[in-house]
Design a protein that fits this description.
The chain is α/β, with parallel strands linked by helices. It is 50% helix and 15% strand.
């Protein structure tokens, strides 16, 4: 399997992207890898601080590594939206393929300094590092606030930090959308021209496929999906539980796994090879 840094270069040549999907337990991880195997496409499997707190770091690592071996797919393990340098250090040493340091809410200069520390931490282990520049609203945060990533700042940021991937603010947000988002594709193209870093689109849930495809053509190399996964899994469970008295989780969970798998397969079609 290529390193993620090598994968970015390949995707740049193909002008394509890879889907990055958050998992929360074995069931959602299984859904992701089953979809990837069926579509014969690589994926990035993402764990957040909360998932690691829930499962434990060793279980998160062991589960991801053993599952991707079982399903025989290319799947990189990524730490998503981390702010704790100690957790990042543990994940790097533990065997994560990639980590994200999210210092985007810090002032620009502090964001650079914090990201530099993580890049230096990751370098001996050849671990991919992602950072964020600009304001991409998180769950519960105001979406009225606007601070899009600027090409000149992105250029300096990547040059000074040496970061491999950069999450950019171009109109997306985490969570559900009240109305269809409008990505600033012209700005995205300018950012792509300004920096060699792999550009990342957070808040991929709910963005129409046509916009995602245009974003890929303009330089997006990684598309994050999380909210839709949780929503589909819980929605399926609620529906299933209304029609059964069965208490055997092994009988109830498979339908939810299948529903999430189908959702991911549809998402993977967006980044399928024929779209390159």
């Amino acid at each position: 399997m290529l390193s993620l840094q090598e994968k970015w270069r390949e995707l740049d040549r193909l002008n394509n992207a890879v889907l990055a999907i958050n998992f929360y337990n074995f069931e959602t991880l299984s859904s992701i890898l089953k979809a990837a195997k069926r579509k014969q496409l690589p994926v990035i499997i993402q764990a957040t601080r909360k998932t690691i707190q829930y499962l434990g770091l060793d279980v998160t690592l062991g589960l991801a590594k053993s599952a991707r071996k079982q399903y025989e797919v290319d799947a990189w393990l990524h730490l998503d939206h981390a702010t704790d340098l100690d957790l990042i250090r543990q994940c790097i040493k533990g065997g994560f393929d990639s980590v994200m340091i999210d210092a985007s809410e810090q002032p620009y200069r502090e964001n650079i300094e914090t990201t530099e520390k993580v890049v230096e931490m990751a370098k001996p282990h050849r671990v991919n590092v992602e950072a964020e520049l600009g304001y991409v609203a998180k769950m519960g945060q105001s979406r009225e606030k606007i601070r899009f990533t600027q090409p000149d700042e992105a250029k300096i940021f990547v040059e000074q930090t040496g970061v491999d991937a950069l999450a950019v603010a171009i109109g997306s947000a985490h969570g559900f959308y009240d109305k269809e988002p409008r990505l600033d594709l012209e700005l995205l193209g300018q950012i792509h021209d300004a920096t060699p870093a792999a550009l990342v689109l957070h808040g991929g849930s709910g963005i129409p496929p046509r916009q995602l495809k245009k974003a890929i053509k303009k330089g997006i190399r990684k598309i994050n999906v999380a909210t839709e996964i949780k929503n589909k899994f819980i929605g399926s469970l609620k529906s299933e539980l209304q029609h059964t008295d069965d208490i055997d989780l092994r009988n109830i969970f498979p339908e939810a796994i299948k529903e999430v798998q189908h959702l991911i397969e549809d998402k993977l079609d967006i980044v399928a090879r024929e779209n390159s």
